[in-house]
Amino acid sequence: MKKKIFIETYGCQMNVYDSELVKTILAEKEYLLVPEESMANIVMLNTCTVRENADRKVLNRVHQIKNSRHQKETILVGILGCMATNFKTKLLEDPKLKIDFIAGPDSYKQLPQLIENAWEHGDKSFDVTLSEFETYSDITPTRKDGINAWLAIMRGCNNFCTFCVVPYTRGRERSRDPYNIVQEIKHLVSEGFSQVTLLGQNVNSYQYDGIDFTDLMRMISDIDGVKRIRYTSPHPKDFPEKLLQLMSEKPAICKQLHMPLQAGNSRVLDKMNRTYTKEEFLALIDLTRHYMPTANISTDIIVGFPTETDQEFEDTIDVIKKVEFDSAFIFKYSERPNTRAAKKFPDDVSEEVKTKRIMRLNDIQNEISLRKKNTQIGQTQTVLVEALYTKRSTDDIQTRNDANQIVILPKVDPPFDINIGDYINVKITGATRNSLKAMFISV
Question: Taking Cα atoms as reference points, which of 375, 441, 440 lies closest to residue 403?
Fold first, then answer.
Protein backbone atom coordinates (compact mmCIF):
# COMPACT_ATOMS: atom_id res chain seq x y z
CA MET A 1 0.00 0.00 0.00
CA LYS A 2 1.33 3.43 -0.96
CA LYS A 3 2.07 5.54 2.10
CA LYS A 4 0.21 8.83 1.71
CA ILE A 5 1.21 11.64 4.08
CA PHE A 6 -0.74 14.67 5.26
CA ILE A 7 0.82 17.23 7.61
CA GLU A 8 -1.27 19.63 9.68
CA THR A 9 0.59 22.54 11.27
CA TYR A 10 -0.20 24.39 14.49
CA GLY A 11 1.48 27.30 16.23
CA CYS A 12 4.27 29.60 15.17
CA GLN A 13 5.98 30.29 11.85
CA MET A 14 8.87 28.06 12.92
CA ASN A 15 6.44 25.14 12.83
CA VAL A 16 5.37 26.15 9.32
CA TYR A 17 9.04 26.08 8.31
CA ASP A 18 9.59 22.73 10.07
CA SER A 19 6.64 21.19 8.22
CA GLU A 20 8.32 22.26 4.97
CA LEU A 21 11.50 20.49 6.12
CA VAL A 22 9.55 17.34 6.96
CA LYS A 23 7.93 17.31 3.51
CA THR A 24 11.37 17.39 1.89
CA ILE A 25 12.69 14.58 4.10
CA LEU A 26 9.70 12.33 3.35
CA ALA A 27 9.50 13.16 -0.36
CA GLU A 28 13.13 12.07 -0.76
CA LYS A 29 12.08 8.67 0.65
CA GLU A 30 9.28 8.48 -1.94
CA TYR A 31 6.38 9.05 0.42
CA LEU A 32 3.40 10.59 -1.35
CA LEU A 33 2.32 13.97 0.06
CA VAL A 34 -1.42 14.59 -0.27
CA PRO A 35 -3.34 17.87 0.09
CA GLU A 36 -6.19 16.64 2.32
CA GLU A 37 -6.32 14.65 5.54
CA SER A 38 -9.08 12.36 4.21
CA MET A 39 -6.75 11.21 1.40
CA ALA A 40 -3.93 10.16 3.76
CA ASN A 41 -3.20 6.96 5.64
CA ILE A 42 -0.51 8.69 7.69
CA VAL A 43 -1.45 11.98 9.37
CA MET A 44 1.10 14.07 11.24
CA LEU A 45 0.23 16.98 13.50
CA ASN A 46 3.11 19.45 13.91
CA THR A 47 2.33 20.95 17.28
CA CYS A 48 2.82 23.90 19.59
CA THR A 49 2.68 23.69 23.37
CA VAL A 50 3.17 27.33 24.35
CA ARG A 51 -0.42 27.62 25.61
CA GLU A 52 -2.84 25.16 27.17
CA ASN A 53 -5.48 25.70 24.51
CA ALA A 54 -3.03 24.56 21.82
CA ASP A 55 -2.62 21.19 23.60
CA ARG A 56 -6.38 20.65 23.88
CA LYS A 57 -6.89 21.50 20.22
CA VAL A 58 -4.36 18.91 19.08
CA LEU A 59 -5.66 16.14 21.33
CA ASN A 60 -9.22 16.78 20.15
CA ARG A 61 -7.96 16.63 16.58
CA VAL A 62 -6.34 13.23 17.18
CA HIS A 63 -9.68 11.82 18.39
CA GLN A 64 -11.47 13.37 15.42
CA ILE A 65 -9.08 11.81 12.90
CA LYS A 66 -9.20 8.36 14.47
CA ASN A 67 -12.99 8.36 14.85
CA SER A 68 -13.59 9.52 11.29
CA ARG A 69 -12.01 6.40 9.78
CA HIS A 70 -13.47 2.95 9.31
CA GLN A 71 -12.22 0.47 11.90
CA LYS A 72 -10.54 -1.69 9.25
CA GLU A 73 -8.87 1.26 7.55
CA THR A 74 -5.14 1.65 8.15
CA ILE A 75 -4.45 5.09 9.60
CA LEU A 76 -1.39 6.17 11.55
CA VAL A 77 -1.29 9.39 13.54
CA GLY A 78 2.00 10.99 14.57
CA ILE A 79 2.72 13.99 16.77
CA LEU A 80 5.64 16.24 15.83
CA GLY A 81 7.20 19.29 17.41
CA CYS A 82 7.13 20.84 20.87
CA MET A 83 4.18 18.86 22.21
CA ALA A 84 5.99 15.62 21.36
CA THR A 85 8.94 16.63 23.52
CA ASN A 86 6.90 18.04 26.39
CA PHE A 87 4.33 15.23 26.70
CA LYS A 88 6.13 12.15 25.38
CA THR A 89 4.95 9.78 28.10
CA LYS A 90 1.31 10.88 27.99
CA LEU A 91 1.15 10.74 24.20
CA LEU A 92 2.57 7.24 24.01
CA GLU A 93 0.94 5.64 27.04
CA ASP A 94 -2.59 7.07 27.06
CA PRO A 95 -4.69 4.27 25.48
CA LYS A 96 -7.44 6.72 24.52
CA LEU A 97 -5.15 8.71 22.24
CA LYS A 98 -3.91 5.85 20.06
CA ILE A 99 -0.92 7.80 18.78
CA ASP A 100 1.47 5.69 16.70
CA PHE A 101 4.71 7.71 16.65
CA ILE A 102 6.16 10.98 17.87
CA ALA A 103 9.18 13.06 16.84
CA GLY A 104 10.67 16.13 18.50
CA PRO A 105 11.93 19.21 16.62
CA ASP A 106 15.48 17.83 16.29
CA SER A 107 14.44 14.34 15.15
CA TYR A 108 12.75 14.89 11.80
CA LYS A 109 15.48 13.06 9.89
CA GLN A 110 14.45 9.94 11.83
CA LEU A 111 10.83 10.13 10.68
CA PRO A 112 11.10 7.60 7.81
CA GLN A 113 12.36 4.96 10.26
CA LEU A 114 9.80 5.87 12.91
CA ILE A 115 7.00 5.57 10.37
CA GLU A 116 8.29 2.23 9.09
CA ASN A 117 8.46 0.81 12.63
CA ALA A 118 4.89 1.83 13.30
CA TRP A 119 3.61 0.74 9.88
CA GLU A 120 5.34 -2.63 9.58
CA HIS A 121 5.51 -3.76 13.20
CA GLY A 122 2.89 -1.75 15.06
CA ASP A 123 5.56 -0.30 17.35
CA LYS A 124 4.91 2.95 19.16
CA SER A 125 7.99 4.69 17.85
CA PHE A 126 9.51 7.88 19.20
CA ASP A 127 12.57 10.10 19.08
CA VAL A 128 12.56 13.32 21.07
CA THR A 129 16.32 13.71 21.45
CA LEU A 130 17.41 17.34 21.65
CA SER A 131 20.54 18.14 19.66
CA GLU A 132 23.29 20.67 20.31
CA PHE A 133 24.13 20.83 16.61
CA GLU A 134 21.13 20.09 14.35
CA THR A 135 20.11 23.10 12.21
CA TYR A 136 18.81 21.25 9.10
CA SER A 137 21.06 23.46 6.98
CA ASP A 138 21.57 20.54 4.59
CA ILE A 139 17.86 20.35 3.71
CA THR A 140 16.01 22.68 1.35
CA PRO A 141 12.41 23.06 2.55
CA THR A 142 9.54 22.18 0.21
CA ARG A 143 7.93 25.60 -0.08
CA LYS A 144 4.66 26.54 -1.68
CA ASP A 145 4.78 29.05 -4.49
CA GLY A 146 4.33 32.44 -2.92
CA ILE A 147 5.82 35.78 -2.10
CA ASN A 148 7.34 35.16 1.32
CA ALA A 149 9.84 32.47 2.27
CA TRP A 150 10.28 31.49 5.92
CA LEU A 151 13.93 30.81 6.70
CA ALA A 152 15.20 29.46 10.03
CA ILE A 153 18.61 30.96 10.80
CA MET A 154 18.89 29.43 14.28
CA ARG A 155 17.11 26.98 16.56
CA GLY A 156 16.58 26.64 20.30
CA CYS A 157 16.63 29.20 23.10
CA ASN A 158 18.88 30.00 26.06
CA ASN A 159 16.69 32.60 27.77
CA PHE A 160 14.69 30.40 30.18
CA CYS A 161 11.83 32.82 30.72
CA THR A 162 10.03 31.23 33.64
CA PHE A 163 6.67 31.03 31.82
CA CYS A 164 8.07 29.40 28.67
CA VAL A 165 8.70 25.75 27.85
CA VAL A 166 10.62 26.32 24.59
CA PRO A 167 14.16 25.75 25.97
CA TYR A 168 12.98 22.35 27.20
CA THR A 169 11.19 21.37 23.99
CA ARG A 170 13.59 22.83 21.41
CA GLY A 171 16.92 22.76 23.24
CA ARG A 172 19.80 25.21 23.36
CA GLU A 173 20.57 27.92 20.84
CA ARG A 174 22.62 27.06 17.76
CA SER A 175 22.99 29.13 14.61
CA ARG A 176 23.39 28.26 10.94
CA ASP A 177 26.46 29.13 8.89
CA PRO A 178 25.77 32.64 7.47
CA TYR A 179 27.15 31.73 4.05
CA ASN A 180 24.79 28.76 3.91
CA ILE A 181 21.92 31.17 4.69
CA VAL A 182 23.03 33.60 1.98
CA GLN A 183 23.22 30.79 -0.58
CA GLU A 184 19.70 29.62 0.29
CA ILE A 185 18.34 33.15 -0.09
CA LYS A 186 20.02 33.54 -3.48
CA HIS A 187 18.32 30.29 -4.49
CA LEU A 188 14.99 31.65 -3.23
CA VAL A 189 15.43 34.80 -5.31
CA SER A 190 16.06 32.65 -8.38
CA GLU A 191 12.74 30.90 -7.66
CA GLY A 192 10.86 34.19 -7.58
CA PHE A 193 10.74 35.01 -3.86
CA SER A 194 11.45 38.67 -3.12
CA GLN A 195 10.63 38.67 0.60
CA VAL A 196 12.26 36.54 3.30
CA THR A 197 11.33 36.27 6.96
CA LEU A 198 14.16 35.11 9.21
CA LEU A 199 13.08 32.78 12.01
CA GLY A 200 14.41 31.74 15.39
CA GLN A 201 13.10 31.24 18.91
CA ASN A 202 15.32 34.22 19.75
CA VAL A 203 16.25 35.27 16.26
CA ASN A 204 18.31 38.36 17.06
CA SER A 205 20.67 36.44 19.36
CA TYR A 206 22.11 34.81 16.22
CA GLN A 207 25.87 34.21 16.55
CA TYR A 208 28.19 32.18 14.32
CA ASP A 209 32.01 32.40 14.43
CA GLY A 210 32.03 36.09 15.31
CA ILE A 211 29.21 37.03 12.92
CA ASP A 212 26.24 38.42 14.82
CA PHE A 213 22.68 39.21 13.78
CA THR A 214 23.50 42.72 12.55
CA ASP A 215 26.32 41.34 10.38
CA LEU A 216 23.97 38.70 8.95
CA MET A 217 21.27 41.28 8.21
CA ARG A 218 23.82 43.38 6.34
CA MET A 219 24.89 40.39 4.26
CA ILE A 220 21.31 39.52 3.36
CA SER A 221 20.32 43.12 2.57
CA ASP A 222 23.14 43.24 -0.01
CA ILE A 223 21.73 40.31 -2.02
CA ASP A 224 20.33 41.41 -5.39
CA GLY A 225 16.61 40.70 -5.71
CA VAL A 226 15.75 40.73 -2.01
CA LYS A 227 13.23 43.54 -1.65
CA ARG A 228 11.90 42.92 1.85
CA ILE A 229 13.51 41.36 4.94
CA ARG A 230 11.59 40.63 8.12
CA TYR A 231 12.45 38.64 11.25
CA THR A 232 10.72 37.03 14.22
CA SER A 233 10.74 36.40 17.15
CA PRO A 234 13.29 38.68 18.81
CA HIS A 235 14.12 39.49 22.44
CA PRO A 236 14.46 43.10 23.69
CA LYS A 237 17.87 42.31 25.21
CA ASP A 238 19.32 41.68 21.74
CA PHE A 239 18.66 45.03 20.03
CA PRO A 240 22.07 46.76 19.97
CA GLU A 241 22.16 50.28 18.59
CA LYS A 242 24.08 49.13 15.52
CA LEU A 243 21.17 46.85 14.55
CA LEU A 244 18.66 49.70 14.77
CA GLN A 245 20.99 51.94 12.80
CA LEU A 246 21.40 49.31 10.06
CA MET A 247 17.62 48.87 9.85
CA SER A 248 17.22 52.61 9.35
CA GLU A 249 19.81 52.65 6.55
CA LYS A 250 18.85 49.62 4.48
CA PRO A 251 15.69 50.03 2.35
CA ALA A 252 15.22 46.25 2.08
CA ILE A 253 14.93 45.80 5.85
CA CYS A 254 11.32 46.47 6.82
CA LYS A 255 10.79 49.20 9.38
CA GLN A 256 8.72 46.86 11.49
CA LEU A 257 9.80 45.35 14.81
CA HIS A 258 8.23 42.92 17.22
CA MET A 259 9.33 43.78 20.76
CA PRO A 260 7.75 41.42 23.30
CA LEU A 261 7.07 43.39 26.49
CA GLN A 262 5.29 40.55 28.39
CA ALA A 263 4.67 42.81 31.43
CA GLY A 264 5.15 46.46 32.30
CA ASN A 265 6.21 46.06 35.92
CA SER A 266 9.88 45.51 36.74
CA ARG A 267 9.24 43.11 39.65
CA VAL A 268 7.00 40.93 37.48
CA LEU A 269 9.54 41.07 34.66
CA ASP A 270 12.19 39.83 37.09
CA LYS A 271 9.95 36.91 38.13
CA MET A 272 9.55 36.15 34.44
CA ASN A 273 13.37 36.25 34.04
CA ARG A 274 13.06 38.73 31.18
CA THR A 275 16.39 40.43 32.08
CA TYR A 276 15.19 44.01 31.52
CA THR A 277 13.20 46.55 33.53
CA LYS A 278 10.26 48.71 32.55
CA GLU A 279 12.59 51.68 32.24
CA GLU A 280 15.08 49.79 30.06
CA PHE A 281 12.29 48.68 27.74
CA LEU A 282 11.02 52.25 27.35
CA ALA A 283 14.56 53.44 26.66
CA LEU A 284 14.85 50.83 23.90
CA ILE A 285 11.64 52.14 22.34
CA ASP A 286 13.02 55.69 22.47
CA LEU A 287 16.26 54.56 20.78
CA THR A 288 14.30 52.70 18.11
CA ARG A 289 12.23 55.77 17.30
CA HIS A 290 15.36 57.91 17.22
CA TYR A 291 16.55 55.87 14.24
CA MET A 292 13.12 54.98 12.79
CA PRO A 293 10.52 57.55 13.89
CA THR A 294 7.66 55.90 12.01
CA ALA A 295 8.60 52.26 12.67
CA ASN A 296 5.72 49.87 13.23
CA ILE A 297 6.19 48.22 16.64
CA SER A 298 4.16 45.26 17.87
CA THR A 299 4.40 43.37 21.15
CA ASP A 300 3.33 40.39 23.27
CA ILE A 301 1.76 40.78 26.72
CA ILE A 302 0.83 38.25 29.39
CA VAL A 303 -1.80 39.26 31.95
CA GLY A 304 -2.21 37.59 35.32
CA PHE A 305 1.29 36.22 35.77
CA PRO A 306 1.60 34.71 39.28
CA THR A 307 1.60 37.35 42.06
CA GLU A 308 0.87 40.24 39.64
CA THR A 309 -1.11 42.82 41.63
CA ASP A 310 -3.65 45.32 40.34
CA GLN A 311 -1.13 48.12 40.78
CA GLU A 312 1.56 46.21 38.90
CA PHE A 313 -0.91 45.61 36.09
CA GLU A 314 -1.36 49.39 35.91
CA ASP A 315 2.35 49.58 34.97
CA THR A 316 1.57 47.49 31.88
CA ILE A 317 -1.19 49.92 30.94
CA ASP A 318 1.25 52.78 31.47
CA VAL A 319 3.75 51.24 29.05
CA ILE A 320 1.06 50.61 26.42
CA LYS A 321 -0.06 54.24 26.59
CA LYS A 322 3.49 55.60 26.48
CA VAL A 323 4.72 53.38 23.64
CA GLU A 324 1.50 53.26 21.60
CA PHE A 325 2.22 49.90 19.98
CA ASP A 326 0.75 49.48 16.52
CA SER A 327 -0.58 46.09 17.57
CA ALA A 328 -0.36 43.70 20.50
CA PHE A 329 -0.89 39.99 21.09
CA ILE A 330 -2.36 39.79 24.58
CA PHE A 331 -2.81 36.50 26.45
CA LYS A 332 -3.91 35.29 29.84
CA TYR A 333 -1.18 33.49 31.75
CA SER A 334 -1.64 29.73 31.61
CA GLU A 335 0.55 27.42 33.65
CA ARG A 336 2.66 25.24 31.37
CA PRO A 337 4.00 21.91 32.64
CA ASN A 338 7.77 21.70 33.14
CA THR A 339 8.33 25.45 33.20
CA ARG A 340 10.07 27.14 36.13
CA ALA A 341 6.95 29.20 36.85
CA ALA A 342 4.80 26.07 37.14
CA LYS A 343 7.27 24.56 39.60
CA LYS A 344 7.90 27.68 41.72
CA PHE A 345 4.90 30.03 41.50
CA PRO A 346 1.28 29.12 42.30
CA ASP A 347 -1.16 30.36 39.65
CA ASP A 348 -2.78 32.72 42.13
CA VAL A 349 -4.45 35.32 39.90
CA SER A 350 -8.09 34.34 39.43
CA GLU A 351 -9.63 33.69 36.02
CA GLU A 352 -12.08 36.53 36.68
CA VAL A 353 -9.25 39.01 37.26
CA LYS A 354 -7.35 37.79 34.19
CA THR A 355 -10.48 38.26 32.07
CA LYS A 356 -11.03 41.80 33.31
CA ARG A 357 -7.40 42.70 32.66
CA ILE A 358 -7.27 41.27 29.17
CA MET A 359 -10.54 43.01 28.22
CA ARG A 360 -9.23 46.33 29.49
CA LEU A 361 -5.93 45.99 27.67
CA ASN A 362 -7.64 45.00 24.45
CA ASP A 363 -9.93 48.02 24.62
CA ILE A 364 -6.98 50.37 25.11
CA GLN A 365 -4.87 48.74 22.40
CA ASN A 366 -7.75 48.62 19.90
CA GLU A 367 -8.25 52.37 20.27
CA ILE A 368 -4.52 53.00 19.77
CA SER A 369 -4.32 50.66 16.75
CA LEU A 370 -7.24 52.35 14.99
CA ARG A 371 -6.00 55.86 15.76
CA LYS A 372 -2.53 55.08 14.41
CA LYS A 373 -3.93 53.50 11.25
CA ASN A 374 -6.10 56.57 10.67
CA THR A 375 -2.95 58.73 10.57
CA GLN A 376 -1.92 56.89 7.39
CA ILE A 377 -4.99 58.00 5.43
CA GLY A 378 -3.83 60.05 2.47
CA GLN A 379 -0.36 58.50 2.36
CA THR A 380 1.11 56.89 -0.75
CA GLN A 381 2.59 53.48 0.05
CA THR A 382 4.28 50.66 -1.83
CA VAL A 383 2.54 47.37 -1.13
CA LEU A 384 3.20 43.76 -2.05
CA VAL A 385 0.31 41.87 -3.65
CA GLU A 386 -0.45 38.72 -1.61
CA ALA A 387 -3.75 37.52 -3.09
CA LEU A 388 -6.15 38.56 -5.85
CA TYR A 389 -9.05 38.20 -3.40
CA THR A 390 -9.66 38.44 0.36
CA LYS A 391 -11.35 36.15 2.85
CA ARG A 392 -14.46 38.30 2.62
CA SER A 393 -14.65 39.23 -1.05
CA THR A 394 -13.48 38.21 -4.50
CA ASP A 395 -13.90 41.84 -5.53
CA ASP A 396 -10.97 43.01 -3.39
CA ILE A 397 -7.22 42.45 -3.56
CA GLN A 398 -5.09 41.77 -0.47
CA THR A 399 -1.69 43.43 -0.22
CA ARG A 400 0.74 44.20 2.58
CA ASN A 401 2.83 47.28 3.30
CA ASP A 402 6.34 47.61 4.71
CA ALA A 403 4.88 47.79 8.23
CA ASN A 404 3.38 44.30 7.78
CA GLN A 405 -0.15 45.70 7.77
CA ILE A 406 -2.81 44.30 5.45
CA VAL A 407 -3.94 46.79 2.80
CA ILE A 408 -7.16 46.04 0.91
CA LEU A 409 -7.96 47.64 -2.43
CA PRO A 410 -10.96 47.11 -4.71
CA LYS A 411 -10.61 45.71 -8.18
CA VAL A 412 -11.40 48.40 -10.74
CA ASP A 413 -13.27 48.22 -14.04
CA PRO A 414 -11.50 47.59 -16.31
CA PRO A 415 -9.18 45.70 -13.91
CA PHE A 416 -5.57 46.77 -13.82
CA ASP A 417 -3.08 44.09 -14.71
CA ILE A 418 -1.37 42.99 -11.51
CA ASN A 419 -0.21 39.62 -10.24
CA ILE A 420 0.66 38.02 -6.93
CA GLY A 421 4.17 39.13 -6.00
CA ASP A 422 3.94 42.53 -7.70
CA TYR A 423 4.90 45.70 -5.85
CA ILE A 424 2.41 48.47 -6.56
CA ASN A 425 1.80 52.01 -5.36
CA VAL A 426 -1.46 52.81 -3.59
CA LYS A 427 -3.07 55.70 -1.75
CA ILE A 428 -4.51 54.90 1.68
CA THR A 429 -8.19 55.89 1.78
CA GLY A 430 -9.49 54.34 4.99
CA ALA A 431 -8.69 52.27 8.04
CA THR A 432 -10.12 49.70 10.41
CA ARG A 433 -8.49 48.29 13.50
CA ASN A 434 -7.12 45.31 11.56
CA SER A 435 -6.39 46.65 8.09
CA LEU A 436 -6.06 49.62 5.76
CA LYS A 437 -8.08 50.43 2.65
CA ALA A 438 -6.52 51.91 -0.47
CA MET A 439 -6.90 52.83 -4.11
CA PHE A 440 -4.50 51.80 -6.86
CA ILE A 441 -2.13 54.44 -8.23
CA SER A 442 0.56 52.72 -10.30
CA VAL A 443 2.83 49.72 -10.70
Answer: 375
